[in-house]
Amino acid sequence: MKDFNNVDFLLQNDTAVRLYHDYAENQPIIDFHCHLNPKEIAEDKHFEDLGSIWLDGDHYKWRAMRSNGVDERFCTGNATSWEKFQKWAETVPYTMCNPLYHWTHLELRTAFGIDEVLNPMSAKRIYDCCTDMLHRPDFGTKGLISRYNVEVICTTDDPADSLEWHKDISKSGFVTRVLPAWRPDKYVDIEKKTFNSSISRLSGASNVQIKDYESLLAALKSRHKFFADNGCKLSDHGISTFYDEKYTCAEVDYILKKALRNEALSDIEISKYKSALLYDLAVMDAESGWVQQFHYGPMRDNNSRLFDSFGPDAGCDSISDGAVAHSMAGFLDSLDRKDKLTKTIIYNLNPVDNALVASMIGNFQDSKSGPGKIQFGAAWWFSDNIEGMLNQLEVLSSMGLLSRFVGMLTDSRSFLSFARHQYFRRLLCNMLGDQVEKGLLPASELDFIGEHIVKAICYTNAKSYFDF
Which of 93, 27, 100, 16 is nearest to 416 (CA)? Predict the structure, then answer.
């Protein structure tokens, strides 16, 4: 029987142990997509207590607590930080076999050096110990980032953002590079009630009066250059599906003007507008040499009561099941046909689409952009678990080149979530080690596997792919 959460956690054979400790464990982290707040990094924020850093904004934990019968005031309500943490500690034993159980204990060990199991009996002791550590000078946000050996962080930023905090971090001499990533969702989602207020903010940031589609593109191009000048190398799009509706320039202009007049749009008009703007944004990325990312497949804010009281990101999202293959292929092909398809990473939320995405990326690879131009992104959100990660790795291995994969990212708002890179690395090494042990891969090639697959996926592929 193996000990829980020890140095060889998740490593089930000798080859996996060697691959992890020799090739994966000490690689720097490149976290190329997350939702960390750059202001909190710039100011080296020190969290008041373990409850604040662990539970504020963490919809993963809120969902588990609700499922355990915990009242909402201990999730998004006005309970004290200790009271919320206490309810989380009561929930943790019931998260066994959920990735939250592993993440919780990995974060305790990697950030705070605590090997004790969290439960109601140990809660106060762990809470006090970690809170004391968080008050130390070296346990602010910068200290935590350094503790995890993070080389690059890419935040998620609206085109209208000033990037003032990224500038402050760059000037501070902080060893970790904290770069902006372009997230233009608010200008794509024309159907949202907040669309016109977002357009007003973009107009102010760009000094462009947005009155039609041409001026919208001018404003976005201005901000795109501003982001590039401040170190941005990649975009990210959160979309429900891909769009490949046929349109004319005149139609798109008319649709935008209707929206600016607060007139209702039909579904086909919304689809045409999104098809046009996502295409034009992709062309901007290609011309700037950026990487574009597409996170598709969520069905958001399903609980209207919680949305009305708390707003978005309350933990009431789920997996959508819409058809996507034809629109994805059409969108990528329309760019490739014009030689405007830049490096692209596709993340699917529904694991049913794994084979679809893995087969799709092979259609648009080319030598001009180097190996792995089109990527099947890491298992995401509801698939961010042992089964989901392994399935993504195995499907990619079967239909593409695992060795060219750019690897893991946190997609998190928490400064403790860098432990998920370790979780992923252990699973990767165990999968490869298992294949060597079974004779499916040659033991004589272990150094190649370690250097050109394990180390590459953990670090060097991303460093080269993003040109960091």
Answer: 100
Q: Where in the chain is the domain with CATH 1.10.2020.10?
A: 46-139
Partners of 295 in beta bridges: 238, 347
Q: How many C-beta atoms lie closer than 10 Å to residue 305's C-beta?
A: 10
- Tokens encoding 38: 């750059």
26 is written with which tokens?
A: 């000490």
DSSP 378: P
Report the run of H or E that residue 178 belongs to, with start and end: strand 177-179
In the DSSP assignment, the letter for residue 92 is G
**Rounded CA gap, 344 and 282, in Å?**
10
Q: What's the confidence (pLDDT) of residue 3?
A: 87
End-to-end CA distance of the chain: 42
CB 383 within 8 A of CB 391: yes
Q: What is the pLDDT of residue 455?
A: 98
Give the pLDDT score at 148. 97
Give the CA diameter of the chain: 68
**Residue 44: partners with Cβ closer than 8 Å, 6 or more residues away:** 140, 141, 142, 143
Query: 373 to each of 2, 342, 364, 377, 465, how far by Cα in Å?
Result: 40, 8, 8, 12, 8
* CATH homologous superfamily, domain 46-139: uronate isomerase, domain 2, chain A (1.10.2020.10)
Residue 417 vs residues 34, 104, 176, 414: alpha-carbon distances, Å: 10, 9, 16, 5
| Rounded CA separation 18/147 (Å) | 23
| Closest by Cα among 123, 102, 106 to 115 | 106
> Secondary structure of the chain: what % helix, strand, coil (to 5)?
55, 10, 35
Residues forming CATH 3.20.20.140 domain(s) in the chain: 14-44+151-465
pTM of this prediction exceeds 0.85: yes
Domain 14-44+151-465 bears CATH identifier 3.20.20.140: yes
